[in-house]
Amino acid sequence: MDHKQPTLVKGVSEIPAQAILDISEKMEREEMTKQNQSKEQFVHQVFENIAPKYDFMNSLLSFRRHKAWRKFTMKKLNVQPGEKAMDVCCGTGDWTISLGQAVGSKGEVIGLDFSQNMLDIGEEKRKKEGNLEHVQYIHGNAMDLPSKDHSFNYATIGFALRNVPDIKKVLSEMKRVVKPGGMVVSLELSKPIFAPFKWVYYAYFNYILPLLGKLFANRYEQYSWLPESLKSFPDSRELARIFEEVGLERVETYLFFGGIAALHIGYKKDEEV
Ligand SMILES: C[S@@+](CC[C@H](N)C(=O)[O-])C[C@H]1O[C@@H](n2cnc3c(N)ncnc32)[C@H](O)[C@@H]1O
């Protein structure tokens, strides 16, 4: 056989260049895994800590706008009785509960999160709301959803895509668990488009918001991480492209309040089984 000899790097002639490349790729992968793990651990610890204050702080910091955005989103989804949904990174379960109410007792909703403290609050809310026996919370990781392929009509993720170590992996997982024709939906903070508004918003986000976090929840570090998490997050156009890259089609984007939040909806191909 005519095997091409691997190129040798000068000075380390006994090690083939391919082996060096393999080692450096392996080290890069290990480094990324380490970074992902530490981001995951950090995010996990943040939500375990702020769980009791999460709902209050959410309303305070968004001036209750998140409620209107959630309402708009539910209208767009037009969820029907008897359908099935998975709410990934469900936190204290606001969206999970809305989905549960929309699908009714013949439907099924799973809320998944890796923070037990957030889930516990969600469970209290579920019981208080009543008639939501078809809603179930499970402890799990968005990077590896514990559900079979093609199980749900909707996979939703609210204000959490920013927090996960690998956006593509999570969206692919969400796509995997929805049925052909089903929807993958993200409601998330985004980057404003209009310049003067952008500066005001960033000033609020970078300086005032962490102070409010300190004042009302006694957690400066956790809330100063919020602006950090948005900096590295794709803007609404890039996120729409990522939706397409993972194979979702007919991607729709809706911007809220000058683009400080965005709703993305993508559909799994009909023939994908
Ligand atoms: C900002 S909260 C959003 C909660 C809820 N979806 C909402 O709309 O209010 C983000 C949630 O994502 C969860 N989370 C972050 N990364 C996760 C992961 N890799 N797997 C599961 N849950 C995760 C956190 O524990 C937290 O409850």
What's a concise summary of this model?
It is an enzyme of class 2 (transferase). The chain has 273 residues and is α/β, with parallel strands linked by helices. Helices cover 49% and strands 18% of the residues.
What tags apply to this protein structure?
18% strand, menaquinone biosynthesis, UbiE/COQ5_MeTrFase, 9 helices, 49% helix, transferase, alpha/beta, disordered N terminus, 7-stranded mixed β-sheet, 273 residues, single chain, Rossmann fold, binds S-adenosylmethionine, EC 2.1.1.163
Task: Set down the secondary structure blueprint.
Blueprint: H1 17-50, H2 54-61, H3 65-77, E1 84-88, H4 94-103, E2 108-113, H5 116-129, E3 135-139, E4 152-158, H6 167-177, E5 178-189, H7 195-217, H8 220-231, H9 236-245, E6 249-256, E7 261-267
Parallel strand pairs: 1-2, 1-4, 2-3, 4-5
Antiparallel strand pairs: 5-7, 6-7
Helix pairs in contact: 7-8
The structure holds S-adenosylmethionine (SAM).
